[in-house]
């Protein structure tokens, strides 16, 4: 059983605590740190937490604490991580790891120098649907992954600090694209290096200094491309979707807005419906177990199981650093309006590139097979390319041949 110092008492700290206390349950929040005394005491009373404090150092250095969970505004992550590492405590940090790639690198170096357990709390990499899709990809069900698309759009964050660039460090890219980038990395392969990005970002709706919309392309060394779409001004709830295409198959996932649970009510259900839901009446899309469906259950199970075993979780500070470096390139590209390289001071993946032309399918000694299909007349049509001349030809024959 782990005793936890929860740093933060806001929306994400609530999700984390609900997951820890209600699911694995043997891990308990022992002390809550909140910047406002009233918030901390209220949180502690609600979740039956023994202690609350407005002193971050007191929470981290509590002698009964085994692990520190950081659920704070982005600009406080670096300070909290360094403090936890110096105290010799295991540390788990919410996304994004840092406001910049440089901050994330400092955090990675701090925990590795201290030799403490570290986990990157990227919940959307742990949703049941994502984990099932990853198993399918790893088993070869879709072949080599060529393209991914990840979308997270909603009406905007819950807390004021997100909208203040001095505290958040950015806008929709830092808040949402971090999810999309890491989910796609898992599908394409974490050992495959992200090479360059092209990104559009703009402030179209909200009266803020950061972007409220962005679309990006991340090109990987194998030639695979990951696309993300993010928005803080999408109406109708939270839209979480992932797609991927491989040489042998395709996967499409709808995580949240269309869950298979649909309800119409003219009078309302009298309370919370789902994260980022905008209405309490009309057609609603509730979630059966929000904490579970958004990945928190599997995420914390992985984190604390691996911590107990002395092994490495699926998501670490190294992953958080890579994501931050990709986002740095995205923000630069949005300004320069051209492809920008992903600058990685630390890279631990593959250094040899898989040949892009290695996916050719041989039809016979003379031809490559481009495509084969059953056409409406019942015949089989094959599109072929002659190996020497490069000429494209087609064959049409009866389906039984």
TrEMBL record:
Keywords: Oxidoreductase. It comes from the Bacteria. Residues 3-116 form the Gfo/Idh/MocA-like oxidoreductase N-terminal domain. SUPFAM superfamilies: Glyceraldehyde-3-phosphate dehydrogenase-like, C-terminal domain, NAD(P)-binding Rossmann-fold domains. This is Gfo/Idh/MocA family oxidoreductase. InterPro entries: Gfo/Idh/MocA-like_OxRdtase_N (IPR000683), Gfo/Idh/MocA_oxidrdct_glycsds (IPR050463), GFO_IDH_MocA-like_dom (IPR055170), NAD(P)-bd_dom_sf (IPR036291). The keyword Oxidoreductase applies. It comes from Adhaeribacter radiodurans. Residues 132-252 form the GFO/IDH/MocA-like oxidoreductase domain. GO terms for molecular function: nucleotide binding; oxidoreductase activity. Pfam families: GFO_IDH_MocA, GFO_IDH_MocA_C3.
């Amino acid at each position: 059983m782990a005793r936890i110092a929860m740093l933060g008492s806001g929306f994400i700290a609530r999700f984390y605590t609900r997951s820890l206390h209600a699911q694995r349950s043997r891990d308990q929040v022992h002390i809550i740190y909140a910047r406002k005394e009233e918030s901390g005491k209220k949180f502690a009373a609600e979740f039956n937490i023994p202690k609350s404090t407005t002193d971050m150092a007191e929470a981290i250095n509590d002698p009964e604490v085994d692990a520190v969970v950081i659920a704070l505004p982005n600009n406080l992550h670096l300070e909290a991580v360094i403090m936890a590492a110096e105290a010799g405590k295991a540390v788990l940090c919410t996304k994004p790891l840092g406001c910049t790639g440089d901050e994330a690198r400092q955090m990675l170096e701090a925990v590795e120098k201290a030799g403490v357990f570290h986990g990157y709390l990227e919940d959307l990499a742990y949703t049941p649907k994502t984990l099932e899709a990853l198993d399918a990809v790893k088993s070869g069900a879709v072949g080599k992954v060529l393209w991914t698309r990840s979308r997270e759009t909603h009406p905007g964050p819950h807390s004021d600090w997100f909208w203040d660039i001095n505290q958040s460090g950015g806008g929709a890219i830092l808040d949402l694209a971090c999810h999309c980038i890491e989910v796609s990395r898992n599908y394409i392969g974490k050992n495959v290096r992200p090479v360059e990005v092209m990104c559009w970002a703009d402030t179209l709706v909200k009266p803020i200094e950061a972007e409220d919309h962005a679309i990006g392309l991340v090109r990987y060394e194998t030639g695979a491309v990951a696309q993300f779409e993010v928005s803080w001004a999408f109406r109708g709830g939270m839209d979480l979707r992932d797609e991927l295409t491989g040489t042998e198959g395709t996967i499409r996932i709808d995580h949240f807005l269309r869950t298979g649970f649909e309800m119409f009510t003219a009078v309302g259900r009298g309370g919370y419906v789902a994260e980022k839901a905008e209405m309490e009446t009309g057609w609603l899309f509730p979630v059966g177990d929000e904490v579970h469906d958004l990945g928190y259950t599997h995420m914390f199970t992985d984190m604390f199981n691996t911590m107990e075993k002395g092994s490495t979780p699926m998501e670490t500070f190294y992953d958080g650093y890579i994501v931050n470096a990709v986002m740095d390139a995205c923000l630069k590209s949005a300004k320069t309006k051209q492809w920008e390289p992903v600058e990685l001071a630390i890279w631990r993946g593959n250094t040899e590139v898989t040949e892009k032309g290695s996916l050719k399918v041989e039809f016979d000694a003379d031809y490559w097979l481009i495509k084969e299909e059953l056409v409406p007349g019942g015949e089989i049509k094959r599109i072929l390319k002659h190996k020497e001349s490069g000429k494209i030809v087609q064959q049409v024959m009866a389906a039984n041949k």
